Q: What sequence folds into this?
């Protein structure tokens, strides 16, 4: 597989990105196309990465075409308004990556840059898969069960969602979980505020019967709640992009706060400080288990092509795993599978009929009061 | 202050609840009215609590009227449909607590029972404060800054919200944070998916200008995101009840998962197990810092009276702190302050005018696509 890698995107660009690409080209069967300012890329390549040992033979990779450079001198900054920037800067590195995929010169696009710009660029250049209303950003989260990471979507592409979109998210998530994350029969949950069928807001109350009765091919386990995010008992959770983004960032915040508290308690006391030394390998192991970098970034599902968005703070490791995820998504043809499954979805009933399908007690408000104005 | 305590609500009722009430009556200036099945309450009182030392003189408290019992033999179960249950069981313990407040025989009501039933009962019996559209459940969360807990509302009473309600949540949260949590000048944030003014969904984009320009008396710091939940730099965060509930439960899930991972890594290795022994006090201290019990439960704001809802798994400690929070809320007359401040709020402009107030780039979609159907 050929990976178009945006060398200019992310806080650590181009150095970490470039070396992530080198590692992917050296250690896997894939070839990597570094897209960005050629001078900056060549400069980064001249300084070997201290953590990558042995250093791959960059000259040989370039000679054999396993690694190549496509030059462009435009790029999108983190603070640019995403949609406007990719429209204005026609040759920004993200757009060039997408065009390589569009023209069949690359099989997957990977970027650690502005995720809004990435989504906008994919839509402008690749368009949408036939039948998909809105592409979604899916994120992989660690769980209490080490070999069962959670795929959460949408993680921020669509802030206000129609319930039909949630059905598409469920199908796309099911496919990615099976083909790329290797779950044989993913269990799909609908994010709500309680596991009972009747719990939820207007969106989830409409999506619930749709997922239960009108989405063949998924294993729908019903409503899930915040407690289920890290429980390791669900493979795919669907929600609107606002809620997904809040879940993602709140989890990071909670983990960070806990780590900080533990550190402060231990460092605040000489005895604890000494006692903690033998445990350092265990704490490092914990950090590794929680490390989102190894899960290969967030796929943008619903566009015709394998598009992987990684965290802005990505290091070479995150880029390496993201390239691997892009390669798998392309090799298993996730997009074609999405098109086929979305095309087979049954007609959605009218909203009124859908409400009739709702669990009996759904109509009863939890806290009665004046109508929503 | 006189606290009406629902002795029948919660997983550990009546024993832990009753003893939490005893402790509050013995250690504070408040008197406590235990509401529930008298035989069960008296039985619980006969078995002294092993963790409460010295055991308070229950007989003396009862004689002096610092502790009293109001009998009722109905109660609401966790699995009951909340609104229907409080309507059907007129004399359930929650309803009796509310009536004591309504009739001026108690100053605050505290329950660890079904929170939906609690909210419904408060609405049926106490009604709403004049001018408040919908009461909200506020939750106190620990933060990285030990003496700066976060008040998050709504945490689940209103799943679909109008943007005007969020303005009321902001005012009510500001008041509770000042009067009960002791923050002099609470910073109020609007939960969104990025800190930039233009980020958010339809609800937050309408609420933003309302909070910035039409809510005198609050210190509005703009949009906050999931990363800010535990950062300790915000005092009050407002959001709809769906998002608030997801934040609350996801945080609990993340903390639980991290604790579990650490435990498994340490217990899986004899050397680590031995090395961890001297650190046990530090780990206990961490657990204490994260312990939600000490923050005094979740107030239901917007009803005329001090109503505190605590976690279903509350122990005597949680009940003790909840009684203290109820007492403070009543003593500072949170409800009267809410009525005054809500009454002074300026007229809300029409939706169209509000949109004109939005930050310039708010109209630009992050990922353009077909309109929401």
A:
């Amino acid at each position: 597989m050929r990976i178009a890698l945006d060398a200019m995107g992310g806080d650590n660009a181009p150095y970490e990105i470039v070396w992530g690409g080198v590692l992917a080209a050296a250690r896997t069967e894939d070839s990597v196309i570094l897209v960005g300012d050629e001078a900056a890329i060549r400069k980064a390549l001249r300084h070997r990465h201290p953590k990558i040992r042995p250093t791959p033979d960059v000259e040989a990779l370039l000679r054999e075409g396993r690694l190549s450079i496509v030059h462009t001198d435009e790029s999108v900054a983190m603070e640019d308004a995403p949609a406007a920037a990719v429209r204005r800067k026609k040759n920004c590195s993200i757009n060039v990556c997408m065009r390589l995929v569009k023209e069949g010169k690359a099989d997957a696009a990977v970027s650690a840059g502005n995720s809004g710009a990435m989504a906008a660029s994919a839509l402008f250049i690749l368009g949408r898969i036939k039948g998909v209303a809105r592409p979604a950003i899916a994120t992989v989260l660690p769980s209490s069960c080490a070999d069962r990471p959670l795929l959460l979507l949408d993680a921020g592409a669509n802030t206000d969602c129609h319930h039909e979109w949630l059905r598409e998210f469920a199908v796309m998530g099911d496919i990615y979980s099976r083909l790329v994350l290797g779950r044989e029969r993913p269990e799909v949950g609908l994010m709500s505020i309680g596991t009972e069928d009747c719990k939820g807001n207007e969106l989830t109350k409409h999506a619930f019967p749709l997922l239960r009765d009108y989405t063949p091919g998924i294993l729908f386990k019903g409503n899930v709640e915040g407690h289920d995010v890290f429980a390791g008992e669900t493979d795919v959770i669907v929600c609107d992009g606002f809620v997904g983004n809040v879940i993602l960032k709140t989890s990071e915040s909670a983990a960070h706060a806990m780590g900080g508290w533990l550190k402060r308690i231990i460092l605040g006391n000489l005895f604890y400080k000494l006692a903690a030394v033998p445990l350092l390998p265990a704490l490092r192991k914990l950090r590794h288990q929680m490390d989102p970098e190894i899960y290969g970034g967030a796929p943008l599902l619903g566009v015709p092509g394998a598009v992987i968005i990684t965290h802005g703070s990505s290091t070479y490791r995150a880029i390496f795993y993201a390239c691997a995820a892009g390669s798998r998504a392309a090799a298993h043809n996730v997009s074609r599978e999405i098109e086929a499954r979305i095309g087979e979805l049954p007609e959605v009933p009218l909203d009124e009929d859908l409400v009739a399908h709702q669990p009996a007690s759904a109509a009863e408000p939890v806290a009665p009061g004046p109508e929503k104005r």
Q: What stands out?
A: Chain A has a mean pLDDT of 89. Residues 241-267 of chain A form the longest helix (27 residues). The two ends of chain A are 54 Å apart (CA to CA). Chain A touches chain B through 83 residues (CB under 8 Å).
